[in-house]
């Protein structure tokens, strides 16, 4: 299965990558020697940043993924009519 690169919402990918980078950077600074704690904190920080950016009415226009942008599944095959 190949990826249709034209259908990728690059703004959304860049935004989520930035959130992940910021969360990992903060977690790395806070938990310098504890890798598991850093990973857990990074995941929690990402969730907080994502929810804030997605659902808080901050007035900043962020890229969003609309249902019309999402890839659609091909229609299910139909069986031939009975004879």
Explain what the structure shows.
The longest helix has 21 residues, at 10-30. This protein has two helices and no strands. The radius of gyration is 20 Å and the shape is elongated. It is 51% helix and 0% strand. With 83 residues, the chain is an all-alpha fold. It has a domain at 18-55. The protein has helices at 10-30, 35-55. α1 packs across α2 (35-55). It starts with 9 loop residues before the first helix and ends in a 28-residue tail after the last helix. The model has no long low-confidence stretch (mean pLDDT 78).
Topology:
Elements: H1 10-30, H2 35-55
Helix pairs in contact: 1-2
Secondary-structure element series: HH
pLDDT averaged over residues: 78
Cα distance, first to last residue?
36 Å
So how many helices?
A: 2
* Computed CA radius of gyration, to the nearest angstrom: 20 Å
Regions with pLDDT < 50 over 5+ consecutive residues? Answer: none
Primary descriptors:
83 residues, 2 helices
Q: Brief overview, please?
A:
By secondary structure, this protein is mostly helical.
